[in-house]
Amino acid sequence: MKIGELSDRTGASVRALRYYEEKGVLTPGRTPSGYRIFADSDIRKVAHIQTLLTAGLGMDLIGEILACLSGESLLLDNCRDRLEAERRRMTDDIDRLTHTRSLLDELLATSRRRRPTTPAI
Q1: Domain-located, residue 118
Q2: Which residues of 54-91 are buried (b: 16+ CB within 10 A; e: fewer)?
Q3: Residues 6+ apart with CB under 8 A from 45
Q4: Torsions phi, psi of 37, nearest 5?
Q5: Residue 61's beta-bridge partner residues?
């Protein structure tokens, strides 16, 4: 399928698909006239890319993860360690955010209790 059809089928813009190709996470074939040709499997790959981007991962790591999923890389021996390290990083980030949210909740609760009442006129 051509890039426009992949865009329609995935919801990713043509510009985003070209960016994914530039970063090496999508590797379409080419027709003799130079048009990009994508496989049906690229629909799933784009969905993975979009999910991982939404999760806050960078394109380099996404490339590593996709290589692990497809088995097209020498990274396979290190995939589990790399993915576990990224998961630990995410968990640490979540823990910090949870702690910060709790602090804000306490501040908000304290400020509600101390809010002076306005006398009726």
Answers
A1: no
A2: eeebebebbbbbbbbeeeeeeeeeebeeeeeebeeeee
A3: 25, 26, 66
A4: -125, 120
A5: none
For 30-46, write each residue's pLDDT tens digit. Answer: 999 999 999 999 999 99
Q: What is the CATH number of the domain that holds 48?
A: 1.10.1660.10
The total of structural domains in the chain comes to: 1
Domain containing 40: what range?
3-113
120 lies in some domain: no
Give the tens place of pLDDT for each residue, 67-80.
877 655 555 566 78
At residue 91, the pLDDT reads: 95
Q: Tell which wins on pLDDT, 111 or 73.
A: 111
Report the length, in residues, of the chain.
121
Provide the strand spans (E) within the chain: 29-30, 36-37
